[in-house]
Design brief:
mainly alpha; globular; two-stranded antiparallel ribbon; 3-stranded antiparallel sheet
Length: 381
């Protein structure tokens, strides 16, 4: 008698496992809609990256010390002294950005395929909350190495909170734990990043996965006209789709290790509140909002800027309730698809301008200075 058979007998003789066996068999052997392909792997990819972040985060926590005097030194120690510390630190750093990218790609596929429509509104809603939580993960984790770039980027980022009417000053003080970024800020970000956000994200993922299993993947049929997937034409979850996800998982692991070796994140200089580096910018996922805020000046400019930055996220949350059309196919939803493409284009353009602003670049053999607003000015030699 092999071990697997013995374990099966052990549990079957003590618990009613028939219901669980039936559920697992149904989920493993179910058929997916015929259009299910490689673009449907980004949800599983996001989950895999979250698991990777959890494992590497725990390994980092063994040596990390969340104090202004020890934080940067502990990162140096992990990188230089701990066995394979450099590797899992780099995987954790790159994994955070790749997780946000995977969530964005998953949401894009869901949006353009109309998979947020009835009866999957709540699945989309929890997905947007997962996206916002993942971004918050990136923001809170960015400060933890306590280097110059992270310190001053956090200073700039938390300053934006003061632009919110009525509660802005209080919110900035609450986030920082004082008037300026200090060890109290580091402590608060550490608690958020290591304790609160993992539980919040885990809860959201459980609800999201439950809703997804209950409603299944969306077909391309109009709302109210969906039919059960025909076993003759559906895609087998196992082994076909599982094989695709396995291939993507291997490629992801290879990409993480490659980035860790060829493009490592610098440790940087220790944070110095008395020396302000030039041209501090946030991470790529905050660049569109960072650049958009620059265009709003005057007494009410910051307030309008905050509203403009918040509007896309509010629309994302409410979109299933605003788009009441029955069709899911992109060709039959020109308005929704146009809105999506315009929003994506705006994010890419603003992000690009944010990245290039306050730098000098060479275009077609000419040297240009890109100003604060992203406008190029030719530099005379």
């Amino acid at each position: 008698m092999n071990l697997k058979h013995w374990i099966g007998i052990f549990f079957a003789s003590r618990f009613d496992t028939a219901t669980a066996d039936e559920f697992i068999h149904k989920q493993v052997h179910k058929r997916l809609p015929p259009h299910t392909g490689w673009l449907h792997v980004f949800g599983s990819l996001s989950l895999l990256l979250f698991i990777s972040q959890t494992i590497t985060g725990i390994l980092l926590l063994i040596y990390y010390r969340p104090t202004p005097d020890e934080a940067h030194k502990s990162i140096q120690y992990i990188t230089a002294e701990v066995n394979f510390g450099w590797l899992y630190r780099q995987i954790h750093a790159w994994g955070g950005s790749l997780m946000i990218l995977a969530v964005v790609l998953h949401m894009m596929r869901t949006y353009f395929w109309g998979a947020y429509k009835k009866p999957r509104e709540l699945t989309w809603f929890t997905g947007v909350l997962i996206f916002l939580t993942t971004i918050t993960f990136g923001f809170t984790g960015y400060l933890l190495p306590w280097n110059q770039v992270a310190f001053w980027a956090t200073t700039v980022g938390t300053e934006s909170a003061s632009k919110i009417p009525l509660v802005g000053e209080w919110l900035r003080y609450f986030i920082r734990g004082g008037e300026v970024v200090t060890g109290e800020t580091l402590s608060r970000f550490f608690v958020l990043h290591v304790i609160l956000l993992p539980w919040i994200l885990t809860g959201l993922l459980v609800v999201h996965l439950f809703l997804m299993r209950v409603t299944n993947l969306a077909t391309m049929e109009p709302v109210g006209e969906e039919k059960p997937v025909d076993p003759k034409h559906g895609i087998p979850f196992y082994p076909v789709h599982v094989c695709k996800e396995g291939i993507v998982a291997v490629v992801l692991l290879a990409a993480l290790v490659t980035l860790a070796v060829l493009a490592p994140w610098e440790i940087g200089e220790p944070a110095n509140p008395l020396v302000t580096p030039e041209h501090i910018k946030p991470e790529w996922y905050f660049l569109p909002s960072y650049q958009l805020l620059k265009y709003f000046e005057g007494p009410y400019g910051p307030f309008i800027g905050i509203l403009a930055c918040s509007l896309p996220f509010a629309l994302l949350l409410l979109w299933p309730f605003l788009d009441r059309g029955k069709h899911r196919h992109p060709r039959k939803r020109p308005i929704a698809v146009s809105f999506g493409l315009l929003g994506l284009l705006a994010a890419v353009v603003l992000g690009g301008l944010g990245h290039l602003s306050e730098t000098e670049q060479t275009f077609f053999g000419n040297r240009y200075h890109i100003d604060h607003y992203g406008v190029p000015h030719r530099v005379d030699h």
